[in-house]
Amino acid sequence: MIRVSNTPIEGIDYEAGLAQYQMERIYHRILSTYLRSVPEILDTLAAQQEGDLDGYITTVHGLKGASYGVQANHIGELAQDLEFAGKRGDVDFIRQNNQQLIDETNALLARLKAFMDAQG
User: Fold this and answer.
1) Which residues are CB-neighbours of 102 under 8 A, at least 6 positions away?
2) Which of the four pLDDT bands, split at 50, 70 and 90, describes residue 2?
3) What does the domain layout of the chain look like in residue ranges?
4) Cα(6)–Cα(3) distance, rounded to whole angstroms?
5) Which DSSP category does 9 fall into?
6) Which tens digits make up the pLDDT trace of 81-119?
7) Mean pLDDT of the chain
8) DSSP 95-117
9) Strand partners for 9
């Protein structure tokens, strides 16, 4: 695999991820797992926002952790805000901001997919 650490992925602090995992190959595996698993999480968030608040909190917490784990810090922050809103019972905040989280995460996934596809 060609080292591409100077290639930015908008929305991911790639250099911090490399520093965290210390091997590009391992970091790329983690990024690949994120890319495969997050769409299902987003589907769950879309379905849960109007119903099961506890389930929503758990799901958005998982997205937060996964996003911080790959250094997608902006997505992690958005998810954290929604998690805390859920814990406060602020359903209006969730209704107003959940779609933004989904849209921005989908955009990040598209950029990440393009990056990973370029790696071969």
Assistant:
1) 42, 45, 46
2) very low
3) 23-119
4) 8
5) B
6) 999 999 999 999 999 999 999 999 999 999 999 999 988
7) 91
8) HHHHHHHHHHHHHHHHHHHHHHH
9) 12
Please name the residues in contact with 65: beta carbons below 8 A apart, sequence gap of 6 or more. Answer: 76
**∠ Cα 66 70 73 (to 5°):** 85
Which CATH topology does 23-119 take?
A: Four Helix Bundle (Hemerythrin (Met), subunit A) (1.20.120)
**Contact predicate 49/98, CB 8 Å:** yes
Which residue type, as a one-letter code, is found at position 69?
Answer: G
pTM over 0.85: yes
Provide the residue type at 100 as one letter.
Answer: Q
Q: Which residues of 34-50 are buried (b: 16+ CB within 10 A; e: fewer)?
A: bbeebeebbebbeebbe
Reading the block at residue 34, the tokens are: 């994120």
The alpha helices in the chain, defined as continuous H runs, are 14-21, 24-48, 53-69, 73-88, 91-119
